[in-house]
Amino acid sequence: MSDVECVSASGVTAGGGQGVGARLPRKEDDRFLRGRGQYVADIRIAGLKDVAFVRSPLAHAHIKAIHVPERFSDVVFTAADLTGVAPIRAVSGLPGFKSSEQPVLATGKVRHVGELVAMCVAPTRAEAEDIAACVGLELEPLPAVHDMCKAREAGTALVHEHWGDNVFLETLFEVDIAPALDAPIKVTREISTARQCMSPLEGRGVVASFDHRLDQLTLYTGAQMPHIVRNGLSDCLGIEQGRIRIVSPDIGGGFGHKGILLPEEVCLAWLAMQKGLAVRWIEDRREHLTASANCREHHYNITVYADRDGTLCGIDCEAIVDSGAYSSYPFSACLEAAQVASILPGPYRMPAYRCRTYSVATNKCPILPYRGVARTGVCFALELMLDAVAREAGLEPAEVRLRNLVRPEQMPFDNITRKHFDSGDYPQAIRRAVATIDVASWRERQRLKEVDGRLIGLGLSVYCEQAAHGTSVYAGWGIPMVPGHEQATARMTPDGGLEIRVGVHSHGQGLETTLAQVAHEILGIDTAKVRVIHGDTALTPYSTGTWGSRAMVMAGGAVGTACAEIAERAKRIGAKLLQLDPASVSLCDGRVCGPNSSIALSEIAHTWYRRPQDLPPDVDPAGLESTSGYKPRRDSGTFSYAVHAVAVAVDPDLGEVELLDYVIVEDGGVLVNPMIVDGQIFGGLAQGIGTALYEEMPFDGAGQPLATTLADYLLPGPTEVPAPRLDHMETPSPYTMFGVKGIGEGGAIAPPAAIANAVNDALRPLGVELLHSPISPRRIVEAVLAAREAERPAA
Amino acid sequence: MKAAPFAYERPADLKAAIALMAEAGESTKIMAGGQSLGPMLNLRLVQPELIIDISGLAELKQAERRGDELVIGACVTHGDIEDGRIPDVTRGAMQRVASAIAYRAVRNRGTIGGSLSHADPAADWVSALPALGAKVTLRSAHGVRDLAVEDFIAGALESVLQAGEIVEAVRVPVMRASARWGYVKACRKPGEFAHAIAAVMIDPELGTTRVVIGAVEAAPIFLVDAAELFGGRITHNFRQQFDAHAADALLAQAGMTSPADRHIHVTVLRRAIDEAAA
Q1: How many beta carbons lie within 10 A of that of residue A83, not counting itself?
Q2: Residue B99 burial by CB count (10 A; 0-12/13-18/19+): exposed, middle or buried?
Q3: Which residues in chain B have their CB less than 8 angstroms from residue A694's CB?
Q4: Which of A87, A616, A674, A720 satisfies CB 3.0 to 4.6 Å to A576 for a cystine?
């Protein structure tokens, strides 16, 4: 019996037009659409000063000296000033992991361009930058490790000398690959994805001040995981957690970038605590691009073995991830690469598998987990390979997927890496996608050829997204953050409203609406009277925060549990006031109802708070407030999934790609608010299109990042993102309250693979196959010219 | 990033602006729409001591027809041209070029004179105006001089403007009825700098061409007599006579070493010629 049935059986489910499944307009949009959101940069504190950082101009160098002009000696601070501040350490418990120490301000060496060397305080940012420009750095350059594929070669410079090599972690997962080696189809490719920047509309920002009355540091910071920031700050500064309050106000997009403890946060906290200053640092776009938000850089050598009918016999892969210079807190430097080995097979059945991974240290800024984390690269590699198998076998790409996907009757399904798929009908999603995009008519158009000389291609990709995976999964990684029970506080107010307090943060997910919908589902209180309070360690229960598509499953479950507890207590009070047996009442539409009479929850709240003399003597003293914890019945994660299908037109001479039609068939379990889910998918799709076609952070041989503004770092805009056609399936998760699944990241995972497969389908007559994202015009033209050159008969 | 400190003047008329410039030191920058200079200041790529903001000069916002040319004040914006607020002597060619410059917010403020002065090789006017046969009028305290636009652009981000000198106007000749115009640029999204630009004005009756290949590493490649690209002679059949190999060889000779770059530029040129023939 699922939890949702438990709730129903207890008789408290009281949903209406605002509960689970309602397409309710977002409550938070009232302030956002009127420009009344409050972000870190909007916060004003009396005497606030601005901070600008002196950053390393070199990727790798010894620091010989830092020259601070005498006149600025009291407003410029270097590592020498930060006595007692510990470096940021994010270790992993995986065997063989080598830990790095990320100094808050560089000591001894700089290991990437943009690394913090000194901080400068002034009344305005412009003046702080003027001071920063006067600080002289004496650096002795070292060779930069800039190519992850060469970083393991003997004689390469070392990012962390005492390691002896440049590998954070090497992992191997193998289920005897030998039987696969004789398969009739063997396809081998080298596939890679570029380094990217996450590029939320709002960058990072910090405002720090010290409150002497409370003996407490208040740090305003755009953080997806405020309680985790408090853990990290407490460790670095060596102060007790009670002396730190983290406030995370409105956030203009997180995507993982705002889940990381930044050295800048530690620096500003130190300034506030040690110097008594109220200080602010707002990340600018150049800092964002070159020094912070990097992600995604993967490289695969992969071989897929299959039978002539497309049935998979095995996969053999070596994957490298460029982890950058430091292990970032709390996810560590190994999460990305080591996950590749466990998630590569996905929902496909195969009897043999081997994957070796390397998390490689380079002189680039740390790679951070970006929406989809390792999955976008993995999906790109595997789905391109399945298309290569389809071409080799002479089959439609959809056929190869159907041959190998887990079937609904095999659910729940443990795949070859022991990932536990909770539910779903993957073949149906494929069939619906194929029918919706109308493969046959595109194939016909392909045959007829375009008058403008462009080539038509059709591509699809399948992804799955493990979400809300909990203690049992993360304890295995042994990183500084392991999620346990998720807690929420629900409190009825004397006027019959409801306050919900959660430790997760909402920054685009619409949780102020969806958690109110969950509360409404249980208590029947109008969502307009439900306030969701989040983003403040002083006001909310501990939580690891919003990451891993976990908030709806975990915080939704916690809110549901807390509300169910209040419902029980309210029913007892209501029954007494109605002079009925508690067993004879139920909760419906915000009222406790007996056979012939009823009383509103608001009246019960009024009685509890303001007329306690009317309460029965044996009333539950816990009243109408509850902090409750929740975990799904099984914490190995929910699996949402989708099939993306896209038709493209490719101009082989200019290398331009137009997306002509885009279909998404998505199964996210029971949807709390389908409209919000649509929005999540649209946003993810836009980011996926960026990965597929536009976004790239190139580096030169000295480790210099070459895209330093948004003129060089291309993001898709409204004219580059088509309106997709969405089709929802809703297979409930058997393990979660209401059957919900996490869906936050999925939209960004599948587009690069689907679009690349479509481009390759279009260019197939030219003998061209592109295996590196983004698929830029230049890469297409170079590949087309190379293919023409190869066609040309030898002279 | 915030700009380094600078002094700021906003003269009320052209005379005052010229006088200020005559007195100013080497480290002075003129600001019109500020669409390129603004970001460069904030990135501290330029750190002038003085900025003279000419966006208030009414004299530079006029456009009028004088004889067989249109005289466009330097501070006329791309948006003014896009919206048809100035007379049209190019049968819509300038309007179409203007409407594809960056995106609307840039076109609202960016000016034709500022774009030329900045001399970014990927900018639209830097390539389109030489093909139209346009000239620039430069003014300083010492007087006025006229130059063909192709002689004004000296290289990437480099013009022949001297200290104390300002672009006063752009003069565009009336396009002949027999002239055929084509303008194509390769860029992936609005606002992106072009990877390749081709601007062609071909007059089969006169047998003349003006061809510009832009968005190259240096000043655009300008061919006043491009007969070599058309088998030696310009006829009504110019579309069929276009010789892509000759264009490729010309680009190789100009120092474009990457075959992919040459292929993209030649493709764009061919499409501009197709457009002219259409």
Answers
A1: 7
A2: middle
A3: 188-189
A4: A616
pLDDT at A616: 86
Task: Give the integer Cα–Cα distance in Å for B178 and B181.
Answer: 10
Q: Is the peptide bond before A718 cis (omega within 30 degrees of 0)?
A: no
Is A126 in contact with B195 (Cβ distance < 8 A)?
no
Greatest alpha-carbon span in chain A:
103
- Among A282, A285, A653, the residue to mutate for chain B (most B Cβ within 10 A): A653
Question: Is the CB of B3 less than 8 angstroms away from the CB of A126?
Answer: yes
Examine the pLDDT at B34 and tell me if it is beyond 50.
yes
**pLDDT above 50 for A8:** no
Q: CA dist B106 to A193, A269, A784, B123, B191, Å?
A: 32, 39, 35, 12, 9
Question: What would the mean pLDDT of B114-123 be, rounded to a whole number?
Answer: 96
Q: Find out whether A330 and A236 touch, Cβ atoms under 8 Å.
A: no
**Cβ distance of A719 and B192 shorter than 8 Å:** no
| Gap between the terminal Cα atoms of chain B | 47
Q: Write the residue in B1, B39, B186 that is nearest to A129 by C-beta.
A: B1
Report pLDDT for A413. Answer: 97
| Class of A294-471+634-791 in CATH | alpha beta
Do the bridges between strand A353-361 and strand A413-414 make them parallel or antiparallel, or are there none, so unpaired?
Answer: unpaired
Phi, psi for residue A741 in degrees, rounded to 5: -130, 160
State the average pLDDT over residues B104-113: 98
> What 3-state class would DSSP assign to A618?
coil
For domain B181-277, the CATH architecture is 2-Layer Sandwich (3.30)
pLDDT tens readout for residues A217-265: 999 999 999 999 999 999 999 999 999 999 999 999 999 999 999 999 9
Does A131 lie at the interface with B, CB-CB under 8 angstroms?
no
pTM of the model: 0.96
The answer to whether A466 and A474 are in contact (CB under 8 A) is: no
B260 min Cα distance to partner chain A (Å): 6
Q: What average pLDDT score do residues A99-115 get? A: 97
Nearest chain A CA: its distance from B202 CA (Å): 23
pLDDT score at A713: 96
CA atoms of A346 and A407, how far apart (whole Å): 13
Q: What is the mean pLDDT of residues A50-77?
A: 98
Q: Please give the Cα distance from A244 to A242 (Å, whole number).
A: 5
- The tokens of A530 are what? 């439900």
| Residue ranges of chain B that CATH labels 3.30.465.10 | 58-173
Assigned architecture for domain B58-173: 2-Layer Sandwich (3.30)
Domain A3-37+485-630 is in which class?
A: alpha beta
A639-693 per-position pLDDT tens digit: 999 999 999 999 999 999 999 999 999 999 999 999 999 999 999 999 999 999 9
Return mean pLDDT, chain B.
Answer: 96
User: What's the CA gap between A671 and A741, in Å, rounded?
Assistant: 8
> Which pLDDT value is given to residue A15?
43
DSSP state at residue A331: T
Same topology for domains A3-37+485-630 and A294-471+634-791, yes or no? yes
Q: Is the pLDDT of residue A793 over 80?
A: no
Instruction: Specify the pLDDT at position A618.
Output: 87
The DSSP secondary structure of A112-175, one letter per residue, reads STT-EEEEEEESSHHHHHHHHHH-EEEEEE------TTTTTSTT---SSGGGSSSEEEEEEEEE
Question: Burial level of B59, CB count in 10 A (0-12/13-18/19+)?
Answer: middle
Q: Can you tell me the ipTM of this complex?
A: 0.95
Which residue carries 């009024």 as its tokens? A606
State which fold the B7-53 domain adopts.
3.30.43
Nearest Cβ partner for B2 among A125, A716, A782: A125
| B38 interface with A at CB cutoff 8 Å | no
